[in-house]
Amino acid sequence: MEENNTLRFYRQGPGNFLFKNSTSLFLKMQRIRTIIVDDEEFAIIDLKEELSSYSDIEIIGEYPDGLSGVEGINELQPDLVFVDIEMPKLNGFEMLGQLQCNPIVIFCTGYSKYAIDGYAFEPTDFLLKPIKTTRFRTAMERAFRDLERKNWEERLARQKSQIGYLLLEFRDLHGEARKVFIWPENLLFLRPQENNANYIEYHLEDGRIHVVKKPLKKALTELEDKGFIQVHRQFIINSNKILELHNNDTLILAAANAPQIPISRGNRKKVKELIKNIGLH
């Protein structure tokens, strides 16, 4: 029977959550490193008062504007950030756009008009000032849930990368963020999207195509040590899938759905050496 690792959450009083799956039951004791960015001193005081009942929250920084906020967040790499929107120097949206890390975000603002724009940054919640305690607790429940999910996803990504999976991150046709792990050995070739060179098509043996925003050069760097080679400015191929070299300028791959892959003049010598080394003709 397949193990069910779905996490469930149980409230154990303010700030303490019990996480349960089918094989373990444990109280999460990790300190949640938190930063507040708000230009209103009373708003910071109110937030700190609400947070004081959460024993696992550690406030590591308070900043009065977006400019100092972005510097502090990038330096301290917090788990959770409370962000006002209307602030001097940089507003909350501009500040988040300059972050070099990915904390859980809760917006705190006096203006509901920002809600639609704010959700473009995928926040955990959006609180309106003055903040009500019951509403704040709901936001914190969501924050703890998102933190646990994020930690689990990061652990899973590390584990899978260690055993050879390739992680692809992209948005689907509905604009939803997605993560897919694939085995490089199931990948046939890569090419830039026809009408947008900023996106790469990952073509798999089974006919699936994943479109990812990434430079072709970066994709090659990630796959070079797994037997992939660039044969044309438009194509990176899996050398383990080469079936035949045709007329010294075209590769036939071992898949019925694969197109013929052109070889540029500058790459022909490299491809011929590869063909010789793997014993093909």
Structural features, described:
The structure is a single chain. It is elongated, with a radius of gyration of 25 Å. A 5-stranded parallel β-sheet has the order 5-4-6-7-8, with helices on both faces. A 5-stranded antiparallel β-sheet has the order 13-12-11-15-14. A 3-stranded antiparallel β-sheet has the order 1-2-3, covered by helices on one side. With 281 residues, it is α+β, with helices and mostly antiparallel strands. The protein folds into 2 domains: 8-160, Response regulator (Rossmann fold), CATH 3.40.50.2300; 166-277, Beta Barrel (OB fold (Dihydrolipoamide Acetyltransferase, E2P)). It has helices at 41-51, 66-76, 92-96, 115-118, 133-162, 216-223, 268-277, and strands spanning 8-11, 17-20, 25-27, 32-37, 57-63, 80-83, 104-109, 125-128, 166-171, 177-182, 187-193, 196-204, 209-213, 228-232, 235-238, 242-246, 250-253, 261-262.
Q: Outline of this structure?
A:
The protein has helices at 41-51, 66-76, 92-96, 115-118, 133-162, 216-223, 268-277; strands at 8-11, 17-20, 25-27, 32-37, 57-63, 80-83, 104-109, 125-128, 166-171, 177-182, 187-193, 196-204, 209-213, 228-232, 235-238, 242-246, 250-253, 261-262. By secondary structure, the chain is of the alpha+beta class.
